[in-house]
Design goal:
The chain is an alpha/beta fold. It has 2 domains: 169 residues, Alpha-Beta Complex (Quinone Oxidoreductase, Chain A, domain 1), CATH 3.90.180; 131 residues, Rossmann fold (3-Layer(aba) Sandwich), CATH 3.40.50. Strands 3, 4, 5, 6, 7, 14 and 15 form a 7-stranded mixed β-sheet that branches. A 6-stranded parallel β-sheet has the order 10-9-8-11-12-13, with helices on both faces. Strand 9, helix 4 and strand 10 form a beta-alpha-beta unit. The radius of gyration is 20 Å and the shape is globular. The termini are close together. The mean pLDDT is 96.
């Protein structure tokens, strides 16, 4: 079967001789229809920081956002032909076929724009993160980074009742999307000092909650300065380095509550996220763009890595 394989820094190959996986008891075999790229894929793709070396990676790795159809089932109640959002076993989701099991397996409607339902996967990770903080109703919120994950935070914080949602990014075209998804204010960090801009926009109050959704050294350094005293900092962006500079004294003196959220436990929120998307309680489908053939995987990774304009939740179609 076909798969994508990271064979070196910024090098992705399309292979066609990967062995077919065999579902185990309690699993299904899914034929992939859509596989999305994630910001966390970029660290091993670029091969920088703590992600340097260890090539080639396993074919199919690190794909974890997939939609497809069950073609073989060893799991009661899950029939062949069912369309599903699937979290691949062993993270081998950049492949034509994959193994999956509950709770990382949720039924999807077979009609309509199925690819747009891919937003349920990143939505589940945001739900998991926000489940760990106090309610945001009436609060001032800031989201540093307006890539796909930052946009989901921006959209959801507004839907959850935040009085103000400030989107920050270095790219002007992303800030246009931030407004589209509900940001009350935006800051172009390529032109303006983020701390001073947030101070002005909040009337000197600063943020009750700040989400760091980019994962760079600079974005983390900036984000720590944006919450008020006793405010909350959510560190969500995947870091590049095992050890890096961090304004510890600022965090300490401001007595910030720091929450970080990462990991496959997001599957526990898959059903909730799918219900929200299918029931139109969130409106995130427009960010599923662009959509490219699977064989253009190498180009897709480079587009995502370089933040090519218009590249948000990029989906590969088999």
């Amino acid at each position: 079967m076909k798969a994508l394989q990271m064979v070196g820094p910024r090098q992705v190959a399309v292979v066609d001789d990967m062995p077919m996986p065999e579902p185990r008891e309690g699993e299904v075999l899914v034929r992939t229809q859509f596989s999305a790229l994630c910001g966390s894929n970029m660290r091993p793709y670029e091969g920088t920081g703590s992600w340097a070396g260890a090539y080639p990676r396993a074919a199919g790795w690190d794909g974890h956002e997939t939609i497809g159809t069950i073609v073989e089932s060893r799991l009661d109640g899950w029939d062949v032909g069912t369309v599903v959002l699937a979290h691949p076993q062993d993270y081998l989701g950049f492949a034509e076929f994959l193994r999956a099991r509950p709770p990382g397996l949720v039924r999807l409607p077979a009609e309509g724009d199925v690819a747009a339902l891919m937003v349920a996967q990143p939505l589940s990770t945001v739900l998991r993160a926000l489940r760990r903080v106090d309610p945001v109703v009436g609060k001032r919120c800031v989201v540093v980074g307006q890539g796909p994950m930052g946009l989901v935070f921006t959209h959801l914080l507004g839907r959850m009742g935040a009085r103000q949602v400030i989107g920050i990014d270095l790219l002007a075209w992303r800030l246009e999307w931030a407004r589209r998804f509900g940001a009350t204010d935006v800051v172009d960090a390529s032109k303006d000092d983020a701390t001073e801009a947030v101070r002005e926009l909040t009337g000197g109050e600063m943020a009750d909650v700040c989400v760091e959704a980019a994962g760079t050294v600079d974005s983390v350094m900036a984000a720590v300065h944006l919450p008020r005293r006793f405010g909350t900092l959510i560190v969500f962006g995947v870091p590049y380095h095992e050890v890096q500079d961090f304004p510890l004294n600022r965090m300490f003196r401001n007595e910030l509550v720091v929450v970080n959220s990462v990991g496959a436990d997001c599957v526990d929120y898959f059903q909730n996220a799918v219900d929200m998307v299918v029931g139109a309680r969130v409106d995130l489908g427009a960010m599923v763009t662009p959509r490219l053939p699977f064989d253009q995987g190498p180009r897709a990774f480079e587009m995502y890595s370089t933040h090519e304009e218009g590249t948000l939740k990029l989906v590969l179609e088999l």
